[in-house]
Design a protein that fits this description.
By secondary structure, the protein is an alpha+beta fold. The protein contains five helices and ten strands. The chain has two domains: 106 residues, Protein of unknown function (DUF541), domain 1 (Translation Initiation Factor IF3), CATH 3.30.110.170; 106 residues, Alpha-Beta Plaits (2-Layer Sandwich).
Length: 236
Amino acid sequence: MKKTLFFLILVLTLALALPAPAEEGGTLTVQGSATVALDAEYATLSVGVDTESVNVADAQQENARLMEQVIAALRDAGCAPEDMKTGGFNVYTSYAYAYGDGGAESRTVVYHVSNSLIITVRDISQIGAYIDAAGNAGANQMNSLTFHSSSQSEAYDRALTLACADAKAQAELLANALGVKITGIVSVTVPRDTVVYARAAGAMKTNAAADEGASTAILAGDLSVSATVQVVFGIE
């Protein structure tokens, strides 16, 4: 019995000490990418009013007055009410410091009220006019200008298809260079976010230009919709 038990322990010990057999084949990981260009069809513009006062009520009242002027000016410029919505409203504080004789320091709380509008500009040629109207009416924050296309979803599908083709072409090239054979696809990973790059040229009007009656020049650029895919291929 003791000999049998010793023999079993010896067999198990040797089995555990031996290296595991190597898996057949291997993998090749590549990342494919592609970009599809689109013409911009419409834009979203964010403008805002920022006011400040040592009295929060005064800052709020002045902000409301200026924002009413901005909205009215945008309507007069041709922007439909349904194309304007509040982008954000915020009240925050800062401190104003003063130094008297002898270096004595005093600190005053300053209240800031910030209110912004998101404007959908359906006619891109009107972007400059909207910026001018808002600025002349009291808007002192021009936060963002983004171009869009109604075909972005279809463009992403096209870019994703091209990205897969790019990944396949890279894998075939590497396999040939390495002298291996592709046996199939092990896994595919696709980022869920669509990447859209918008390129536009524009110039914000300075006070000097405003005095001369010059208008803001905005040139619509193109949109670039990109897709990326990571593919793991089996090889032998």
